[in-house]
Each structure stands twice: as structure tokens, then as C-alpha cells.
Model the fold of this input.
Amino acid sequence: MPGPRWVALTGAGVSQESGLRTFRDAQTGLWAQYKPEDLASPQAYSRDPKLVWDWYAWRREAVKSVRPNPGHDALVEIEKRVSDFMLVTQNVDGLHRMAGSQHVIELHGNIQRVRCSECRTFAEIWGDDTESVPVCTECGGLLRPDVVWFGESLPRDQLEAAVEASRSCNVFLSIGTSGVVQPAASLAHAAHNRGAVVVEVNLEPTPLTPKVDYFLQGKSGEVLPKLVKSVWNG
Done:
């Protein structure tokens, strides 16, 4: 028989514990005059690509100043101990990969990746000209962050893989997420409806809480290491 299949869904709360501001709280200093929604859409990029590029460059620098926290590390440990484990994240900071997680679905993309807005070719390096938006070496199109903006659909293959994993898992962990952002919020319900044990780790109850089997209230960086210890180290 195959071993148990686990799926973990993580949200902004996990990144917050590393010192990163949430998407909607990220506006400080020069950027305080803008709403995130005004900087994270295809329309905003078409209107002022340099403004949007600079905002994401600033956010990339903010990510470079932080490191994975014990919650990230605990998820790496769980992956080592479970034969079939999938980590689905709504976060775009790349901290899960930095921590060492291998099987990761980044539903909303990764702020560290850059691709062409025209031909979608990924760019490993780009110029440091601060006066203009870098261009694609393949087609000359403007580069953009590889993240999902307002008004854009999630990558179909990534979403389908996340849904399939959730429908077939034995254990589903919902960690540091509000449980209201769709379609990610539906994953826990899909797991619950198929009979999986659903565990929620969050600072506060969410709309998902009444349906879970276990609600572990607290910081993921404190709760998850204890969970690993109790399940595998006794």
C-alpha cells in the first residue's frame, strides 16, 4: 500500500513570522501613497511599467533581508518524513524553497523570478539600468515579475496539481492563511470532503476553523516544530 499523502497550504502568516510585511501592509516610505492593487495588475503595468518594476524590485530587496523561520524548517522536516508530500503556497517570496522544501507549488508565482511580458521567456539576469525597465533578450519585450496579478488567472497546471493533491491526500495542513482567498481556500474543503484529516494552524480562527479536525492556535514557527516532535519523535 502507498504511504500517507500529506498536503500543506501556507499563506502570508508564515512569511510574516520571518519579518516580511503582508502584501497589503507592505506600503511604507516612498510607496505609502499607493494601494497595492494599483501596482499589481496588468493595467497598472501597461500604464506605468517603470513604476511597477521599481515596486517589485524594492520588494525583492526586502525578501533578501529575511530568512526562513522555524515554521519553514518544520515543513522541510515533514517532507523528509512523509513519502508523499506536497507544499502549496500562496506566498511569492520563495522562502519555502530557500528553506529546502522540494515539492512546492507556488500558486501565485515567485517574486524572485522574472519573465518577459510578451513571449513569457524567463530571464536569469537583467541589466541594472535604473532608468528603464529591462527587456527580454529573446524578443525585446519588457520584463515583469513572474507573479499573478489582479485580473490574471492562476497557472492552470499548478492549480490543477494542487487540487488533485488536495483531493487525494490523507492529511491536509492549512497554515497561516485566512481561508478566504480563492481558489486556494477551496483546497482544504476539497480535502475535507474526501475524508482527509484537516489541521489548521493559525493565530486566529478563520472561516475554515469550524470544519477542521484540529485547530492549533498559535504561530506556525512554534506550533509546527512541536507537531513534528510529537508525531515523529514522541
